[in-house]
Amino acid sequence: MSARAWCLLAVALAVQAMVVPSARADDDEVEVCRIDLGRGWPPATENYGSAVETLFTGGLTPTFSLTRLPVRSAESALQLIAGEGEGDWTLRYVEADERVQVWTGGRKELRTNQHPDVASVPMPAALARRVVAQWQRVMDAQVPRDRAAEFHDDEVVLFVVDGVRVSGLQPACGPIAQMMEQVALLIEASDDGDEKRIKRWRELTELLDQQEQSLAGATGAGAGDTHGEH
Question: What is the pTM of this model?
Answer without folding.
Answer: 0.83
